[in-house]
Every structure is written in C-alpha cells, then in structure tokens.
Amino acid sequence: MAKFKIQKGLTDADMMKNFKEEVSFENTMLTREAEAKKTVIHKGNNQDEFYREFLTEKVETQIGKMLLDIKMEYFKEGEGAFSIQVKRDGKNIVLETAPKKVK
After folding, report:
1. Distance between CA atoms of 26 and 47, rounded to whole angstroms?
2. In whole angstroms, how far apart are CA 25 and each of 20, 22, 31, 39?
3. What is the structure's pLDDT at 43?
4. Cα–Cα distance, 64 to 46 (Å, whole number)
5. What does pLDDT average to in each consecutive run of 10 residues of the chain (103 residues)?
6. Contact at 8 Å (CB) between 94 and 87?
7. What global pTM score does this model have?
8. What backbone phi and psi angles, to 5 degrees, belong to 6?
9. Does the CA dihedral 8-11-14-16 come out positive or negative?
10. d(CA 44, CA 83)
C-alpha cells in the first residue's frame, strides 16, 4: 500500500478542490430536490403567482378540506353549487359562501 502524506492546516475548500463526485442516482435526486426547493424570484409580470406564494401547501389543503365540507353540506340540502366571496375584516380574512342562484 502506498502512503499518502496529509497536509495539515488546509481549509475545507482546499481539501475538496480536486475532488470530482461520481454521478449516481442519489446525487442526481438530491440535486433535483435542491433545485426544486429554490425560491423563484418573480419579475413582477405575473402578480397572481406572487400572491399565491403567501399560501403554503398546508394552508391550501386546509382551505380545500373546509370548502369540500361546505360543498357537501350544500349538496345534502339540495343545492347544486355555491359561490365564495372573500372579504377582509380587520386583520382577518373571511370566506363567505352562499348557494348559487340559478338563472
């Protein structure tokens, strides 16, 4: 076996400067996950996407579950569809539902 002399006092960057990582399934997946999690900076062209960033997946799921419950209640009452109005009440956001009026 050959002996390698390890230099003392090197920084992490100095130790890794000649290291090339082999492409593997794990490395590829980790790279893709990191790229997917990066924050996207909008250029201001699409304000709707900017506003949607305030809704996390958890909040969207909670709102969706509650709206489904309300829809099922309207369905049990014999109403086919309902409308939603979004209102602001001070620092609270209120979603008001009502049965849709048939024309």
Report:
1. 36
2. 16, 10, 10, 24
3. 56
4. 23
5. 76 83 85 76 67 86 92 87 91 90 68
6. yes
7. 0.49
8. -95, 125
9. positive
10. 30
